[in-house]
Design brief:
The protein is mainly α. About 75% of the residues lie in helices and about 0% in strands. The protein is built from 8 helices and no strands. Helix 3 packs antiparallel against helix 7. The structure holds fe (ii) ion (2 copies). One fe (ii) ion binds next to helix 7.
Length: about 200
């Protein structure tokens, strides 16, 4: 799916189906982090109006997702609580911090956008899986996950496009960004495989 190299381990969907409440709590935090990451990236690049506008639009949608998940938590009488550890996102950020990033055109910004794109792609895959294991076909939660599946897929594409823009645009930038995305997607696959056995009931567990 999208640029992903490996599908999620089926054990994850089983664990998630057994503990939907835990997934929802983690999900709320993921949406909040997605919004704050987009805004912090925008704040670091104030001279690039196109980037700032696109990232603030993503942040706006992530805040809306966050508020909707908060509504579901409230309806289920769940607390938001402290964020569960997200080894997946931390490992992915670490995997991107190498020499290539420092020397390439667009540097860190391009890598941060691509790491964000990969997180969107994986979240997107997971929302589709969640939609297949929660409730019945008419359930609100299932419809919500399918809506997010489509929205996070758009965010994935938007972030890849922004990475190309940040690399200077044009065909050469497009080639470079896709080559970099390929490298990061291979690393992402290794991280997902490693976390697969633990099958924690979190969005990226
Ligand atoms: Fe979202
Ligand atoms: Fe998103």
């Amino acid at each position: 799916m999208l640029c992903l190299k490996v599908p999620t381990d089926p054990r994850w969907a089983e664990a998630a189906a057994r503990n939907v409440d835990a997934v929802l709590v983690d999900h709320a935090h993921c949406e909040m982090k997605a919004a704050s990451n987009a805004l912090s990236l925008a704040a670091r690049h104030p001279r690039d109006l196109e980037l700032v506008r696109a990232l603030s639009e993503i942040a706006r949608e992530e805040i809306e997702h966050f508020q909707r998940v908060l509504g579901i938590l409230a309806a289920r009488k769940l607390e938001l609580g402290a964020p569960p550890v997200d080894d997946y996102a931390a490992d992915l950020r670490r995997a991107s911090a190498d020499a290539w990033a420092a020397t390439a055109k667009g540097g860190k910004l391009v890598d941060r956008l691509l790491v964000g794109a990969l997180i969107e792609a994986r979240s997107c895959e997971r929302f589709k899986l969640l939609a297949s294991v929660v409730g019945d076909a008419s359930s609100d939660l299932r419809a919500f996950y399918m809506e997010l599946f489509a929205c996070e897929a758009r965010h994935y594409q938007r972030l890849v496009d922004l990475a190309i823009h940040a690399s200077g645009g044009g065909e050469e930038a497009e080639r470079e960004v896709h080559a970099r995305l390929e490298v990061l997607a291979v690393r992402e696959a290794a991280i997902v495989r490693e976390l697969g056995a633990a099958a924690r009931p979190t969005i990226h567990g």
